[in-house]
Recover the amino acids of this structure.
């Protein structure tokens, strides 16, 4: 298998089946950690080799706590991916972060419970640094694109990642607000930290779909899906321009993450 793919995109944004890709093909992969979430669509867009993988599966059949994050990251790495863009849906923990807005996480707080979050295994110990979990040049590029498109995006956000698949209780939601976090979701961890262990550049861009239940507005899957459907074209527009703007060479330390992390 040729390792010639440059950019990997997670999430069912509608691009991978939109006809925008040239020479698109479906790749069915196996990994040492099992199967990825689905087949991977690989093709060319504006001269860049792209891979798309819907983290919940193309028919949205995999809940957040059962996503095989290690297989997904490993598969991208095996294809040669060096840069990952990760769209996601989140709830808001602050009044000013309104449904329909976008958010750019720069920090996370991990409240997941049972996920396999590291490529560390017997005989190999990795103490990875995630003081700054995301690739700064990728984030800067996202902000340039969203600013150009006059989209409302909240930057420097802290993302609370919960186990799911259930939504929070009111007590939990109010507690998460006390941490100072801005948004809440179920998929960022361990995806971003596995990407760091794999020495890949990674940035998340989040669509805010609802106010979490602290606002006394109970969250429903229907509400989330309705907001997502309204935002899918905007997300798609961001990604199509972003692909063209991402620097081919990144001035970051992501590719050297293991230099001081392994014993």
């Amino acid at each position: 298998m040729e390792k010639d793919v440059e950019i990997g995109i997670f999430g069912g944004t509608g691009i991978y089946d939109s006809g925008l890709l040239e020479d698109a093909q479906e790749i069915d992969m196996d990994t040492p950690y099992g199967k990825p979430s689905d087949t991977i669509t690989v093709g060319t867009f504006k001269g860049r080799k792209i891979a798309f993988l819907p983290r919940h599966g193309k028919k949205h059949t995999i809940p957040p706590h059962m996503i095989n994050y290690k297989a997904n990251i490993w598969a991208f790495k095996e294809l040669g991916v060096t840069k990952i863009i990760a769209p996601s849906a989140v709830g808001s923990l602050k009044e000013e972060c309104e449904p329909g807005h976008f958010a750019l996480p720069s920090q996370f707080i991990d409240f997941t419970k049972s996920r396999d979050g590291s490529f560390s295994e017997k005989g190999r110990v990795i103490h990875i640094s995630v003081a700054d979990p995301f690739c700064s040049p990728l984030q800067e590029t996202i902000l340039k694109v969203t600013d150009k498109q006059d989209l409302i995006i909240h930057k420097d956000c802290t993302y609370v990642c919960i186990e799911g698949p259930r939504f929070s209780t009111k007590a939990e939601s109010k507690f998460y607000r006390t941490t100072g976090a801005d948004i809440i979701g179920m998929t960022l961890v361990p995806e971003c930290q596995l990407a760091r262990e794999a020495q890949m550049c990674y940035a998340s861009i989040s669509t805010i779909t609802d106010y979490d239940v602290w606002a006394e507005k109970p969250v429903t899957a229907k509400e989330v899906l309705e907001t997502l459907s309204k935002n899918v074209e905007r997300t798609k527009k961001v990604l199509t321009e972003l692909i063209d703007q991402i620097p081919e060479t990144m001035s970051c330390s992501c590719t050297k993450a293991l230099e001081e992390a392994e014993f």
